[in-house]
Write a structure and sequence with these properties.
homodimer; Rossmann fold; 12 strands; 340 residues; elongated; 3 domains; six-stranded mixed beta sheet; alpha/beta; six-stranded parallel beta sheet; DNA-binding
Chain lengths: 340, 340
DNA sequence: AGAGGCTTCCAAAGCGCTTTGGCTATTTTG
DNA sequence: CAAAATAGCCAAAGCGCTTTGGAAGCCTCT
């Protein structure tokens, strides 16, 4: 059932039927009802390919997905996607994942924009002065960044959590508990979120005259193994930290294992706080010692990004509005006063 | 730059240019070279929307993604996607994720097929007599199932791993080591892979005159917490199992925690084998006691599924070929002879 | 030399929608 | 009451590609 057939069966022109269905004003309300009704009854759905060709809109949200044998998509992505999809579904949007060579995403961005394959894109895990940002900004496609970049002379729309504030609070708590030697096991130091977290932690320490030595920061890919290694190195030093803040639950698994291997205990010898993106399959309260966390649902973020993208596509949202979500500090058994 | 302009600039008809570009025979080889050359020089790329409208082919692989507040996409998905994307990239295919109400995926399948939004789909986590299979089969869109279903009167193309064989081997090893009370912590019992694993394990036990009692099987969603709970229940019974086979690494985390909480040891009191889909961020060799696993890279499976879908789209693959990959049994420290 | 067959090209008709530019009544306005 | 505005509808022109149905030119064959 296509427009032609439908309009013929209603003895109306395609123009009128099209307009009736798309809510244009120049059509009699009763006619509109007739049309709407017939469309529903016959299950008419406009062909998206045709509509896309005519309007240039695709009804899709795009994501350029870096791939390659050496590239690991991180498990956060699926949770984010889950939220994004949840919203997208209710608004008849589909997602287009365009795999790209991790070393050359630009070509792919240009292609999907030139071909009008998607109405908007979202960008994740931005770095300072991230080239993708500058690119989509000049390409002029609606976009939202999940996270933040830095060092641009233009503003851009983003959704981020208050990483700096979160880690500031975490560190502040530890300092208040008497800890003097803190360490940070961070994610990739080239990503903005990691920079912000470090910044927040330093700020909290500085407020009490403490510092975060170079040897007390580890920036690594967020795997269990890296968490373990980082923790071992830290804890085997001459003056080991008495508290660690850690950028992910998965790394925290490794930290806990390291602590055990060294015959230490949490929170007796070491206090631990980790950031929790809220995975259904790994929960901080189920750690051997319930883990204190800075918590923010990445899934909700996905839904919100989808919502804002939809708003941008339909012109409801404009400008470079940034949105920063506060992060909960959830204290559980893994923190205690500094050992004497 | 579109076809019209290009053909005009070459003083050829659109027909000829189109044919030259698409490799049709009815065009002079020299003309073809001229056309190809000019196309490349001017960076001409056919508009996919137009092509799609004309041909009905979209250049996309589809996946219907169940969503909803209660639906958790499992972290395996992202690894699979990673492999899929890796292959898709090299063949200029994009992925279309269509979010669907988890209770009504049919509507979405019908929509993407009717609208010709994708050239092929893949189906994951099938169940016996899975409705999606029957549906796509009648809808007549190329597809591949990742996993297997059962109980159909038609064949279908799939890629699966030898779950039954894997768990058979795992159980057989444990039996050979003298274990008599084995338990299985499985995934959702309604999914075929879980059924196959149970079947494999039962078969191994039966071969030695042993059985797997109802109380020695737990079928749960694959989270750390569920692994913990299942293990506790099993181990707190009057006659606890001396060996557990577990369907996922994530659940195995929980099992390990339960064992510790009960003051038991691996492999002294309990031998443990888990299935490993090969995540970059959680490796069995890094468990407190290196974990024995049945191993199969889900990422490679993703790449293979993409490859076969591409072959099906272009007509290179036909029929209902099933492909079953063998699974490695990797023995590490977590298994030992049954306690005396 | 004329019929038949290739080769190589083209004009034009889709694909199914949106949108422009009218056109005809009907209503409002001065 | 004529003129102007408005409401409601339509025909037709795109959007940019593929594909159908020729057609012209040149060979080959009898």
């Amino acid at each position: 059932m296509n427009l032609k057939q439908l309009s013929h069966m209603l003895s109306l022109s395609q123009t009128t039927v099209s307009r009736a269905l798309n809510g244009y004003p120049e059509v009699n309300e009763e006619t509109r009802r007739r049309v709407m009704d017939a469309a529903k009854r016959h299950g008419y759905r406009p062909n998206p390919s045709a509509r896309r060709l005519a309007t240039g809109k695709s009804g899709m949200i795009g994501y350029v997905m870096p791939t390659g044998a050496a590239v690991d998509i991180d498990p956060h992505f699926v949770e984010f996607l889950s939220g994004l999809g949840d919203y997208a579904r209710s608004h008849e949007l589909d997602l287009a994942l365009s795999p790209a060579d991790a070393d050359d995403e630009e070509t792919t961005y240009r292609r999907i924009v030139a071909n009008r394959q998607v109405d908007a894109v979202y960008i994740s895990s931005p770095r300072p002065a991230d080239k993708r940002l500058a690119l989509v900004n000049t390409l002029g496609i609606p976009f939202i960044v999940h996270g933040r970049s830095e060092g641009f002379d233009f503003d851009y729309p983003y959704l981020d959590i208050d990483n700096e504030g979160a880690f500031h609070e975490a560190a502040r708590l530890l300092v208040q508990l008497g800890h003097k030697r803190l360490a940070l096991i961070n994610g990739n130091e080239r990503e903005t979120f990691a920079i912000h977290r470090e910044r927040g932690m330093r700020r909290a320490l500085a407020a009490s005259g403490l510092t975060l030595g170079e040897r007390h920061i580890r920036s690594v890919a967020m795997t269990e193994e890296n968490g373990y290694r980082a923790a071992r190195r830290l804890l085997e030093e001459a003056e080991p930290p008495t508290a660690i803040v850690c950028s992910s639950l998965i790394m925290a698994l490794g930290v806990v294992r390291a602590v055990r291997d060294l015959g230490l205990t949490i929170p007796g010898d070491l206090s631990l706080i980790a950031h929790d993106d809220v995975f259904p399959w790994l929960r901080p309260e189920n750690f051997p010692v319930p883990l204190s966390t800075t918590r923010s649902s990445i899934r909700l973020a996905g839904a919100r990004v989808a919502e804002r993208l939809a708003a941008r596509i339909s012109g409801l949202e404009e400008g470079a509005r940034g949105e920063v979500w506060p992060v909960d500090l959830v204290v559980r058994g893994s923190v205690a006063g500094a050992p004497v």
